[in-house]
Write a structure and sequence with these properties.
alpha/beta, 17% helix, Ribosomal Protein L15, Chain: K, domain 2, 160 residues, three-stranded parallel beta sheet, elongated
């Protein structure tokens, strides 16, 4: 086989439809756009929700638009599991959000950390985080470690 022998698989390359090239092509004269009207003109086809200028149903029903309510006070937690802590830290280490960023378990822009109980921790760790699941807290304390909750700072009113 040489470079000039290489061809695409049969049927994988389809020829472009040449519109307006004679009646025998099947797409001549009106080029598949029908006779007259908006759809036959250039730039004429409107979007699916267009209702001839009448107020579309989508705009009449704001609850059906998927906009919904967004809580300006919502707090997004970055989740870290106990199994990850056990792999990344040694016994007696202090686990803080800064230490988690240094190890690579968190992005540097993560503001709040939640510790969940996925996996086992077989050593004593001093864990400081913003939120703990009840089972994660009990697993850390059973292993001889300590848990310290960091206060979450809630912001004021958000302006647009």
């Amino acid at each position: 086989m040489k470079l000039h022998d290489i061809q695409p698989a049969a049927g994988s390359r389809k020829r472009r439809k040449r519109l307006g090239i004679g009646i025998s092509a099947g797409q001549g004269k009106t080029s598949g756009r029908g006779q007259k009207g908006q759809a036959s003109r250039s730039g004429g086809v409107k979007k699916g929700y267009f209702e001839g200028g009448q107020l579309p149903l989508v705009r009449k029903l704001p609850f059906a638009r998927g906009v919904g309510f967004s809580n300006p006070y919502r707090i997004e937690y970055a989740i870290v599991s106990l199994g990850d802590l056990a792999q990344s830290f040694e016994a007696g280490a202090e686990v803080t959000p800064e230490a988690l960023v240094a190890v690579g378990l968190l992005d540097k822009d993560a503001r709040y950390v939640a510790i969940l109980s996925n996996g086992e921790v077989g050593m004593a760790l001093k864990v400081k985080a913003h939120k703990f699941s009840a089972s994660a807290k009990s697993k850390i304390e059973q292993a001889g470690g300590s848990v310290e909750k960091i206060d979450v700072k809630r912001g004021g009113y958000r302006t647009r």
